[in-house]
Amino acid sequence: MSMLRIEKLTISRGERILATDLNFQVKPGEALVAEGPNGSGKTTLLRTLATLSPPLRGTIYWQDHALSDITEVYRSKMLFLGHTPAVKLDLTPEENLKVYARLAGAVTEPSAALECLGIRRYAATLCRHLSAGQLRRVALARLILTAAPLWILDEPFTALDRQTIDGLSSLLEEHLAEGGSAIITTHQQLSLGRASVARLPLGTG
Ligand SMILES: Nc1ncnc2c1ncn2[C@@H]1O[C@H](COP(=O)(O)OP(=O)(O)OP(=O)(O)O)[C@@H](O)[C@H]1O
């Protein structure tokens, strides 16, 4: 059974149609990489799959149920990380993750997630004093906190140093090996070992 299946999806932004009649599916253990130049609609597609923007036409299915029938269930199974880190600057990394953990019913301690992303020593520093890469690591720590089977990640490697890129790639590989799925945009070369990675090209901007 597919986790996510898309049928005849048309996406738009304002008046502009960005892609028509998209058909694809993502199964457990698979990653889909949406590719295309700036402005081709990658973020719009991911926002649509994350239920933040409605599609113009077409249907999205989660485990064979139309999303419109099971929106709340779907939201509890999916973790969306947008391309700007959704982190409250007036809170510390630990406080940010505690708030998120409470809302998401986390399965891991915030401190363990910060340790895993290599930012535990900044746990008590206000986020407004962190660098761009450190902020992104705080946002990415959510991946450790939840058990969501579907990750939707918009440009997750932006601002990360080489070591953290490798760490995030390993996290993704583990997630897929455990039967999770991921839908990703990235302008970087993505290396996910033995995982099954499909590519979805979007048009010119
Ligand atoms: N809030 C908005 N209102 C109207 N149009 C928008 C809005 N945000 C983006 N767009 C337009 O929608 C189109 C697709 O944008 P989108 O962000 O989905 O592209 P993208 O492929 O993710 O680009 P990039 O690689 O630069 O991140 C662009 O032409 C953009 O100008």
Automatic annotation (TrEMBL):
PROSITE patterns assigned to the protein according to its UniProt record, in alphabetical order: ABC_TRANSPORTER_1, ABC_TRANSPORTER_2
Domain of life: Bacteria
GO biological process: cytochrome complex assembly
Lineage: Bacteria, Pseudomonadati, Pseudomonadota, Gammaproteobacteria, Chromatiales
UniProtKB keywords: ATP-binding, Cytochrome c-type biogenesis, Membrane, Nucleotide-binding, Translocase, Transport
SMART domains assigned: AAA
Domain ABC transporter: 4-205
Name assigned to this protein: Heme exporter protein CcmA
InterPro entries named in the record: AAA+_ATPase, ABC_transporter-like_ATP-bd, ABC_transporter-like_CS, ABC_transptr_haem_export_CcmA, P-loop_NTPase
Gene Ontology molecular functions: ATP binding; ATP hydrolysis activity; transmembrane transporter activity
Amino-acid biosynthesis among keywords: no
Coiled coil location: none
PANTHER family: ABC TRANSPORTER I FAMILY MEMBER 1
Keyword flag Ribonucleoprotein: no
Pfam families, A to Z: ABC_tran
